[in-house]
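User: Show me a protein chain along with its predicted structure.
Assistant: Here is one chain, sequence first, then structure tokens.
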Amino acid sequence: MQETHTCTSTQLITSWISLESYVMIDSNLVIIKMGGSVVTFKDKPLMPNMEGIEGIAKVLLELRKEFKIILVHGGGSFGHYWSVKYNMHTKPFPYSDEGIAVVHESMIKLNHVIVDKFIRLDLRPYTIQPSSFMSKGNGDVNKIKQLTEISAGNDLIPITFGDVIHTTENNFSILSGDTIMSLLSTTLHPRYCIFTTNVDGLYEDLDKKDLVPEIHLNEKGEIVGSKSKTKSKIVSSSSAYDVTGGMKRKISEAIPIVISGSPVHLISGFKPERILDIVNNRDYVGTCINLKSTSQLVG
């Protein structure tokens, strides 16, 4: 039987980052990454996973009753597939014109599939091109902050996605959905930052399926404690098509999010009801990464 737990920092409202400063957590905001391995069949080129998309959509119908939501989705067997074919990576480079065009178009197609399904299920997604809040390869803080204004007085759900973006001169780069999660979360400080993947979370032993339910970081982003059974190396699953780093990148992008005040939750996107468990402070199967030195003021 899988171990369940409740992350001790999910009630975070005011997060003290140091003795001299603090950030206010947006208690009404949830930012969710829909992993490419959830919304597509990652080992089947250009094949959306409609069951995975619909499962998350049904949870969002409940979640939107109490929270504002921002969504990010990965490329899965769409963008990642073509990125491998055209040898394109996260490092800025003058990649081939054809590759840039094909990768970008494939992400637009996947986004259309997801948005169309959401609309049919009575959600109100509103697509945001990632290039609209990026400048020369970096996130534009002011434009990112404007994302919350889009849904301030309505039921729209902003949704963006990993993509190929222009950086400088003739250089382009793959911008992963995980990097977007970090850019958005460190700027907007959501109450809940949730990554959905094709596994339950982080494992210290993938063969034995030993899940690490909680990891504590210090203010430098170093692991200072966990609820794992041993001190063995933490591992995760990966896919041949994932040029942006799989779970390894999720962890590296989670660190600045946690340091900025928002705990990060890693769960299976094929068990999307766990999203509701998290926001309702119930036990759930997954991994929570939080700040060990965080002080909490619950309002």
